[in-house]
């Protein structure tokens, strides 16, 4: 069974597998309805499409399928995943991971492995995942570093003062700027951080270690 929210992709893959002698049912369904479809049909193998393998909760349908139909081997069909995406897929109970751009022969090999109870993931994917784990690229998932890069040096100083509890008047006096300018800086910081209040900005900065990083980069 091939389940994906892109009907064209699901039907094209199903047709290609049928030409190679497999009995396949294609279905287009959003993630929320995918589990019900697979549970009701109970195929030997399900190719379950995803567009965002690293998002939290993205593999909940796999968890539910394996809980209610443990005999169904689920292969995740998605984009090139991060190591976290591959780990999350297997942690949810998936039998393997197949890239969207895999050749039909590779998809068929993955299906055969899954039916035999083996883990099905292309060696190149594993090599890429291990390579990224062993040589991380400057902590790409570091939220504090990402947020810090959104702010100008002056906005970082404003955030530090906000976190210290300074009001607009104190910020203006401490930085030698007009209160209206200080207020503008504060609003820009809130907008860039995606928060609605100074309290939220201070909490976000503390939670992500942004202030520690600001101090390190400043000194």
Automatic annotation (TrEMBL):
Alphabetic keyword roster: DNA-binding, Transcription, Transcription regulation
Keyword DNA-binding: yes
SMART domains found in the cross-reference section: HTH_LUXR
CDD domains (alphabetical): LuxR_C_like (cd06170)
Boundaries of every HTH luxR-type domain copy: 144-209
Protein biosynthesis found in the keyword field: no
N-terminal signal peptide: none
Superkingdom field: Bacteria
SUPFAM superfamilies according to UniProt: C-terminal effector domain of the bipartite response regulators (SSF46894), CheY-like (SSF52172)
Residue ranges occupied by any Response regulatory domain in the UniProt entry: 1-115
PANTHER family (UniProt xref): DNA-BINDING TRANSCRIPTIONAL ACTIVATOR DEVR_DOSR (PTHR44688)
Protein's recorded name: LuxR C-terminal-related transcriptional regulator
Annotated organism of origin: Streptomyces violaceolatus
Lineage of source species: Bacteria, Bacillati, Actinomycetota, Actinomycetes, Kitasatosporales
